[in-house]
Amino acid sequence: MRLSNYFLPTLKENPAEAQIVSHRLMLRAGMIRQTSAGIYAWLPLGHRVLKKIEQIVREEMDRAGAIELLMPTLQSADLWRQSGRYDSYGKEMLRIQDRHEREMLYGPTNEEMITDIFRREVKSYRDLPRNLYHIQWKFRDEIRPRFGVMRGREFLMKDAYSFDLDEAAARRSYQKMFISYLRAFSRMGLKAIPMAADTGPIGGDMSHEFIILAETGESEVFCDRTLVDMPAPGDEVDYEADLTPVIEQRTSLYAATDEKHDAAKFEADVPEGNRLSARGIEVGHIFFFGTKYSEPLGALVAGPDGKDVPVQMGSYGIGVSRLLGAIIEASHDEDGIIWPESVAPFKVGLINLKSGDADTDAACAKLYATLTKAGVEVLYDDRDERAGAKFSGMDLIGLPWQLVVGPRGLKNGVVELKERATGNREELSADAAVKKLIG
Amino acid sequence: MRLSNYFLPTLKENPAEAQIVSHRLMLRAGMIRQTSAGIYAWLPLGHRVLKKIEQIVREEMDRAGAIELLMPTLQSADLWRQSGRYDSYGKEMLRIQDRHEREMLYGPTNEEMITDIFRREVKSYRDLPRNLYHIQWKFRDEIRPRFGVMRGREFLMKDAYSFDLDEAAARRSYQKMFISYLRAFSRMGLKAIPMAADTGPIGGDMSHEFIILAETGESEVFCDRTLVDMPAPGDEVDYEADLTPVIEQRTSLYAATDEKHDAAKFEADVPEGNRLSARGIEVGHIFFFGTKYSEPLGALVAGPDGKDVPVQMGSYGIGVSRLLGAIIEASHDEDGIIWPESVAPFKVGLINLKSGDADTDAACAKLYATLTKAGVEVLYDDRDERAGAKFSGMDLIGLPWQLVVGPRGLKNGVVELKERATGNREELSADAAVKKLIG
C-alpha cells in the first residue's frame, strides 16, 4: 500500500481523552476513532490488525475441532426470559423495541441463542460432542466506557459453546479450549496466564480467566511466577489425546484473580521468591456450567439408554477487539507501538527518504513491487515529507521492519533495514534486504 | 470436514414458511435458521458461503483501489439530524435509547458516519481521491420481512463511499465501482445487468442498480437482451485508464428498472427481437450524489486555489447476505442448489457408500487426506447412512463435485466422479480423480 493513497490519519499530540497508553497509541496511530461513547470506527490500519487477530483465533478454534457459524447481533427477549437472565442482566443489556413493539436486545453474549439453535436440531447423543463458535459484534451498555477498545460498548468477541452428553466429556471439551487459548494468545506474542476465576453472570461451576500482565490492568492477580514464562503447547499438540497432564501442569500452580484469591493458600503453596502479585488484563474467559441453560431451555438429547438428558455445556470467550489494546499495553515503547509480526498490519514500512528523486523513487518502486509480489505486506511511505516525520510516523505505527532508502545509500549500493523491536539497524544491498524480509 | 463431526441439519420436507426457492433450499440445506422475524443465524454451511462471497467482493474492491475499514453497527442520532435524514427515514430505521437515554440507531447505511470520519481527518485536495468501504451488518426494520435472506432485517452489506474534489473526478470513482461490480458478480457466476435506477432515500443525481434476472425477482425490469450475456471486464482491466468506453458500451443500450422505465424509448431504441422484460433481483446499487451529505455535514477540503469546497461523493452498496439467495435463485434444479465453484462451501463432497467397511473407509480416508492436503475443501460423508440419503443430501447442498467410493468400484480399481451442474458421471482411478480435482 502506498501511503499517498491510504487513509492513515496519525496524530502528533496525545489526545486528552485517553488515559492509558494503548488508547493513546491507537488514536495517534490512526487505528480507531470514537463515533459515540465507547463505540469506535476501525480505520484501515486498526482494521487490518483486528482481522489478523480474528484469523489467529479462528485457526486455533478450528484446530481444536470447533465449528464456525454466525449468529445475528439482535436477539429476541423471549429466549432470555426462558433462561431467567432477561431481568437479572441489568442495564448493561441494551434493550430495543422494533416497529411492532416486539422486545429485542443487542446480544451481550449468546448462551441462550446457541442453546435454542442446538435444541431445535440435535436430538441424540450420537451427534455429540459439538463445539460451535462465532466471531460477532456484541454490545454491553457500560455505564462508563473507557480505555478505548479495552472497555468499549460495541466490541468484537469470539464465543464458543460446547455440548456434551456427560460431565466427563464436557471437561474434555473445556480442556481443549484451555489449550486452544494458550496457543492463540502465544501466537499473538502474549504471555497469557490461566487463573481460577469467578463465573459472574454466565454462571457455572468452573472457570478460568486468561490474563496478561500489564500495569494498566483492571484486575489484581496473584500467581506463581513459573507460570509467566511457561511455553504454550506447540503444533504437535494432539487434541484427541489426554490433555489432563498439560492442564494440570498449569492448574496445579497457584494463580487466581482478586475475587478468588486466598492469601493463606498463596503463601502456603508458593515459595516466597515465586510469589507474583500484579495487575492483569483479561483477554479470555472460559466456563463450564453444566445444565444451567440446557435445563430451562429444554436442550435434551437421548442417551445410549434412550432416556432424554439435558446436555452439559460450557462457553468460551475471547475479546478480539480488546486484544488490540492488550497487545499494545504489552508491547510498546516511548516512540509508539511494537507489533508482533503475527498481528502487524504490515510487515514492512518502506521509507523513501527523497520522494521526487528519480533514482530513489525507482529503487523504492522496485523494492515495493518485489516484496509485494513475494507476498510481503508493505506500507510504502512515498509522500513528499521530511525524513524525520517519516521515521517518527513509522515508529509510531510500529511495523516490525523499516526499510530505508535514500540517495546517499543508493550511491554506495546499500539500503538500511531497521528492526522496530530492538532498534537494530543494518546496511545491506537491496537484494539482501529483500531476501531477509521474504525469509 | 467429516460430516459425522459437522453441524449440518438438513430437512427432507419443504418448510411451510418459505415462499421462494432460495429460502426453501437455504433452510433445507441447513444453511440458515430464523431466530426472530427477518433475522437469521448462519449455520456452518451458510457461513462458509457468506465468507466466500464477502472475500470476492473485498478482492474486487481492493483491486479498484478502495480501502477497507470498519464502522460500528450503532450510530448516534445526532449525525442523522445534521443530514436531515433522522426524521425522514421513517420506521425502517431501528431507533434505540441507551441507558443514559441517548438517542442511537442501528445503521441502515453509513453516509453520515463516513462523512463525519472523513471531515475530521481530511482537509486538502491533495488527499483525494479516496474510496473507503466496509462490510458490516446493517438493520432495516422491514414491515414484512420475507423471502429469507433476500429481504431480511439484519443483513450484511458492503458499502463504499468515494470522495473527490470535483464532479469529473467523482464520475471516475463511480466508473471504477461500476466495473468492479461487474467483475465481482461475474466471479460469483452471476450475470448482473446495470440499469438506470431511482436514487430513493440515498438521494443524488445518477444511479445504477445491478440486477440479475430471476422469476422470483421483486422488480420488473426492461433491457436490451444483448446486455444479458455481455462478459464482464477481465483481469486485464486497468483502473487507471479511461473507463468511459467500457461503461458506454453498456449504458448506451437500454436497461431500466420499473421506476425509470420509458416504454416509448424502449420501443424506439431496442429492436423488437432484443426487447427483454423480466423480473429481476437487485444485488448492487451505486449512487453519485455530489454534495448532498458533504454540504450539510461540512465536509470541506481546500482546493488547489486554497478555497474550501464541499467534497463530491458517491456511495456503492452490495447486498452480501442477499447474494446467497440471489445465486441460488439463479442456480438450482429440482434436487437442490448448484453452487458455482467460486462460492461453494466445499468443492467436493466425498461419499462413502459403505461406512464401516475397512477397505472403503481406508480408501476414503486416503482421498480425504490427499485432497485436503492439496488445499481442496472436502466435505466427507462418513456417516453410517444408506447410499440414497447420502446422494440426495449431496445434491441438496449442491457442492460442485461428488466423489463416490464404494466396495464394488474399489474391486475394479475405480471411484465415481459426478459433476453436480451437469449430472455427468465418470468412472476413473482414485489417482485420476485426485488429479482432476486438484487440477
Report what the structure shows.
2 copies of one chain form a homodimer. With 439 residues, chain A is of the alpha+beta class. The first copy, chain A, has 2 domains: 3-336, BirA Bifunctional Protein, domain 2; 346-438, Rossmann fold. Chain A contains 14 helices and 23 strands. Chain A has helices at 21-28, 44-63, 77-83, 85-88, 111-121, 167-187, 244-251, 263-269, 294-297, 320-330, 358-373, 387-397, 407-411, 430-438, and strands spanning 32-36, 39-42, 67-68, 74-76, 94-97, 103-106, 130-139, 154-164, 192-196, 206-213, 219-224, 255-257, 275-290, 300-302, 308-310, 312-319, 332-333, 336-337, 348-352, 378-381, 401-405, 415-419, 425-428. In chain A, strands 3, 7, 8, 9, 10, 11, 12, 13 and 16 form a 9-stranded mixed β-sheet that branches. The first copy, chain A, has a 5-stranded mixed β-sheet with strand order 20-19-21-22-23, sandwiched between helices. Chain A has a 3-stranded antiparallel β-sheet with strand order 4-6-5. In chain A, helix 1 crosses helix 10 and helix 2 runs antiparallel to helix 6. At the A-B interface, strand 1, strand 2, helix 2, strand 3 and strand 4 of A face strand 1, strand 2, helix 2, strand 3 and strand 4 of B. Chains A, B: It comes from Tepidicaulis marinus. Chains A, B: It catalyses: tRNA(Pro) + L-proline + ATP = L-prolyl-tRNA(Pro) + AMP + diphosphate. Chains A, B: Homodimer. Chains A, B: InterPro entries: aa-tRNA-synt_IIb, aa-tRNA-synth_II, aa-tRNA-synth_II/BPL/LPL, Anticodon-bd, Anticodon-bd_dom_sf, Pro-tRNA-ligase_IIa, Pro-tRNA-synth_IIa_bac-type, Pro-tRNA_synthetase. Chains A, B: Belongs to the class-II aminoacyl-tRNA synthetase family. ProS type 2 subfamily.
